[in-house]
Amino acid sequence: MRFAATLIAALAVAVPLAHAQTPATVPEAMPFDIPYGTPIGLDTANKAIAAAAAEARKHNWKMSITVVDPAGNLVAHATMDGTQYASIPISQAKARTAALFRRPSGVFQAAANGGSPNMLGLVGLNGGVASEGGFPIVIDGKLVGAIGASGGIFTQDAVTAKAGLAALGVK
């Protein structure tokens, strides 16, 4: 009974706050509206992974690196020697998040850490992760896949994954 009363009181405060934070204007253009392209191939995925691993080795970082297709399905993966095992599913989740939502996984981290009014939308981040280090791979204006890295702190993960993008000529 006490829990129910606490829950009702919390909702009474939260619901008006949620409505008060609704944006006044609605943009006409959809954000992150990247068209899909032909899924990334194995050779291209391996090229990105090799470059990302080389960047990690330069800094003596131990990383798990994943490349997925636009639907978030695994194309290629590498785990560097000594990488913590927990980083394997995390790098896959970062890549999958970037592919499925057509935006860097760090966007969700920023929303969660910044207390965005849209933060409740993160509840639906099924199979994804709100952590920097996952980036869409966009070639010729089309989403062909995504890369994710995990093993260090989120900034190290991002530098590693971005090296894979750079090897493909993606900014």
List its salient traits:
4 strands, Beta-Lactamase, four-stranded antiparallel sheet, alpha+beta
What does this structure look like?
This protein has 171 residues and is an alpha+beta fold. 43% of the residues lie in helices and 15% in strands. The protein is built from 5 helices and 4 strands; from the N terminus they run ααββααββα. It has a 4-stranded antiparallel β-sheet with strand order 2-1-4-3. The model is unreliable at 1-20 (pLDDT under 50).
Note the topology.
Layout: H1 2-20, H2 42-59, E1 64-68, E2 74-79, H3 87-100, H4 106-113, E3 134-139, E4 142-150, H5 154-167
Antiparallel strand pairs: 1-2, 1-4, 3-4
Residue fraction in strands: 15-25%
**Cα radius of gyration in angstroms:** 18 Å
Superfamily (CATH H level) name? Haem-degrading domain
Amount of helix: 40-55%
Q: Count of DSSP helices?
A: 5
Given the C-alpha coordinates, what overall shape results? globular
| Largest sheet entry | 4 strands, antiparallel
CATH level-two architecture = 2-Layer Sandwich
> Overall mean pLDDT score?
85
Series of secondary-structure elements, N-terminal to C-terminal: HHEEHHEEH
Poorly predicted regions: 1-20
Strand order of the largest sheet: 2-1-4-3
Distance between the termini: 55 Å
Q: Given the helix and strand composition, which structural class is it? A: alpha+beta
